[in-house]
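Re: [ENG-882] Designed sequences occasionally contain unexpected residues at chain ends

Forwarding the minimal case from QA. Structure tokens:
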């Protein structure tokens, strides 16, 4: 099921959060300033203690959410490297195949690498285009697997060709790991809980200021700005293929370049 917040721009979320916090602080301040509220030193100390507790809970939630989003970002980065290594391993092991099968296997692997490289540039919002790349990748996997099994069953060197079959199996495995990693995010209910904690904390901060009869200080808004900046980073880390923080695609791009050099050598006429 698609999450509600996923299609909303990260900057819009951060801006809305800042405005919401400012409104919550102002509302809390006006409630604290109401003449009907008579606060003594004991009640002020109690509210201040509640404010400190809410700030501690907020810090805990921010730390937990940041850790979760960073772990998922690292998992997606590692998946790109693992897939690049798996394709390269299969490409090298293609040299163990019979001469007449080597070229076909490497051509399929070059096409597969091009597919995976281009798929890495498709936004997750563009579901139709992304699905077309996934379908094409699975078709190329089927062709590689059929080729590998046919060679292994029809040749005497099953040990040599079997290593290529194992490499194709690994290639298919890491494909699913990388593809599934794109759909793993911080649960939206956690983000909503975080948002609710923001509002409650902001209102209490404003309320304490209202009880003391002084406007919310500049330092409080600096704190709000830092919190909003951290939330922006959390949301951006949690959204693959969009935003400012992007997964490093250099491993598979370098592999594509190496394969392009190999393809050019095949096109050169032999003396």
């Amino acid at each position: 099921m698609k999450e509600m917040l996923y299609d909303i721009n990260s900057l819009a979320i951060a801006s809305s959060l800042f405005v919401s916090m400012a409104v919550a602080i102002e509302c809390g301040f006006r409630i604290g300033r109401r003449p009907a509220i008579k606060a003594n030193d004991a009640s002020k100390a109690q509210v201040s203690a509640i404010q400190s507790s809410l700030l501690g809970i907020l810090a805990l939630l921010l730390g937990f959410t940041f850790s979760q989003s960073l772990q998922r970002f690292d998992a997606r980065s590692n998946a790109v490297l693992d897939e690049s290594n798996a394709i390269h391993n299969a490409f090298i092991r293609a040299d163990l195949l019979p001469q007449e099968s080597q070229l076909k296997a490497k051509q399929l692997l070059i096409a597969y690498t091009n597919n995976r490289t281009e798929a890495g540039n498709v936004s997750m919002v563009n579901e139709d285009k992304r699905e077309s790349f996934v379908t094409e990748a699975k078709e190329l996997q089927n062709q590689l697997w059929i080729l590998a099994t046919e060679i292994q069953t029809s040749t005497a060197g099953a040990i040599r060709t079997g290593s290529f079959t194992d490499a194709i199996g690994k290639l298919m495995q890491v494909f699913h790991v990388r593809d599934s990693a794109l759909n793993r995010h911080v649960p939206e209910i956690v983000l909503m809980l975080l948002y609710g904690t923001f509002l409650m904390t902001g209102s209490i901060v404003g309320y304490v200021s209202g009880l003391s009869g002084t406007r919310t200080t500049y330092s409080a808004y600096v704190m709000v700005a830092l919190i909003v900046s951290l939330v922006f980073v959390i949301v951006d880390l949690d959204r693959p293929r969009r935003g400012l923080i992007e997964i490093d695609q250099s491993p598979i791009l370098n592999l594509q370049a190496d394969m392009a050099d190999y393809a050019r050598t095949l096109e050169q006429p032999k003396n």
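QA comment: On inspection the terminal residues look reasonable. The chain has a mean pLDDT of 84. Proposing we downgrade this to a documentation issue.
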